[in-house]
Amino acid sequence: MSEHKLWKSMLIGAAVGGVFALLDQGTRNHVVSGAKRAGGSARNFTQHPSEAVRAFRLQYEQFGSRLAEGAQDILEALEKLEDILEKVSEIDQVADDDYKSVQQDAS
Predict the structure, then answer these.
(1) Are residues 25 and 68 in the same domain?
(2) Global pTM value
(3) Based on the domain organization, do 53 and 105 belong to the same domain?
(4) Helix, strand, coil shares of the chain as percentages rounded to 5?
(5) Based on the domain organization, do 70 and 106 belong to the same domain?
(6) With 60 as the cut, is the pLDDT of residue 35 above it?
(7) Residues 26 and 52 occupy one common structural domain
(8) 58 and 22 share a domain?
(9) How far apart are CA 5 and CA 30, in angstroms?
(10) Does residue 14 carry a pLDDT above 70?
(11) Number of domains observed in the structure of the chain
(12) DSSP of 62-100
């Protein structure tokens, strides 16, 4: 029972918040223009469903290629980081060897 009241209260709160948000002229204009664009797109897709499928496929392909490019960039960055760490390790080894030889010469 209390769960039902929770959802009901949340819906009422959202509706009241939406009403108060729409008191602002800029917000109303933004909501109206967004609704008109969404309605136009929906109408276009219902009139031309093949175009909707084509647009979805193109977006999916673009997402896939961007994801692949991003993964490739990450791999290249990791390879560069690995090279840098190897160089730092070599420098550390040389410094450690020099330090040991200096200590031996001092004794």
Answers:
(1) no
(2) 0.46
(3) yes
(4) 95, 0, 5
(5) yes
(6) yes
(7) no
(8) no
(9) 32
(10) yes
(11) 2
(12) HHHHHHHHHHHHHHHHHHHHHHHHHHHHHHHHHHHHHHH
